[in-house]
Amino acid sequence: MPPSRPFDRTVLDLDYAAAADRICERLREITARQLHRRGLVVAISGGIDSSVSCALAVRALGPERVFTLILPERDSSDDSAQRAHILAEHLGVRTETVDIAPALEAIGCYRARDAAVRATLPEYGDGWRFKIVIDGGLEGRFNRFKLVAEDPSGETVVRNLGLNEYLTIVAATNFKQRLRKTLEYFHADRLNYAVVGTPNRLEYDQGFFVKNGDGSADVKPIAHLYKSQVYGMARFLGLPARVCDATPTTDTYSLSQGQDEFYFALPYAQMDLALWALNHDVPAAELARELGITESQAQGVYDDIANKRRTTRYLHAAPVLVEPVTELAHA
Questions:
Q1: Is the predicted pLDDT of residue 15 greater than 70, yes or no?
Q2: Which residues on adjacent β-strands are paired with residue 156?
Q3: How does pLDDT run across 156-190, given as a tens digit for each residue?
Q4: CA dist 100 to 53, 70, 115, 123, 173, Å?
């Protein structure tokens, strides 16, 4: 019997040519035969996931059958929009930019969010910036949330967030993803296109998306790819360096925020390896050796993954019917 493959970062190596061919074949089949749509709509943020999803859509259907949206708002980074424009030009796709800030203002997104921030930090006001950070995942404990704010002079203030304030801030900022999805489906409806969702495996597995926001889509072409593999796919597809070298952020709050600060226990490259290890029954001690952390911390990461799978199961769930409609089950 051949020896088992050693556990190291090479477990995430991928035949990108074969993977791209398979994804594109499935995109053509899903779009035309399962969804009966003429093309695909992709909202591009300038981030690696939407960029690769868009590039695969173009590879599958051609640029003339892919429509892209750039949807900035008040807290969006200027660099994100610039990368999105660079990508659209590189791929030769139609694109439309819509500033969603006025709509978010009208429905109270910023007002509700700022009121919750001021309940934690009364001095918060004009000229301040903030983000939410997470604590506890590396130890496998319940995640705690902190508000990190910067005043106009650049001084940083950190406060513990109460549950009500945390939930209100998140609920308000979720407006952003839900409004973006509304625009995606408007264009999908007018063009008879399908909407592409852009989560990678780490985000899809761990529920790092908004229900009926960025979690809503007709097809999700990279949900089986670890984030490290998405970066590899971007380079294989020859995407611009500005896209391939971009650091992943949430691009949701006024202060720059890494995904590991807000949600994951580890930076994405380490988190990918931890998720692969858990999926393949690698003992915590082996993960600890590879990542240079303690066995207790590695087990904490495993526990955090399990906790997030359990608590975010609702995000994956379809609406629950009180009684089954059996006629549609076999349609």
A1: yes
A2: 150
A3: 999 999 999 999 999 999 999 999 999 999 999 99
A4: 22, 10, 20, 27, 12
Given pLDDT bands bounded at 50, 70 and 90, which one contains residue 4?
Answer: low
CA distances from 271 to 19, 40, 50, 137, 283 (A): 22, 30, 20, 11, 15
Domains of the chain: 9-106+168-315 (3.40.50.620), 109-167 (no CATH)
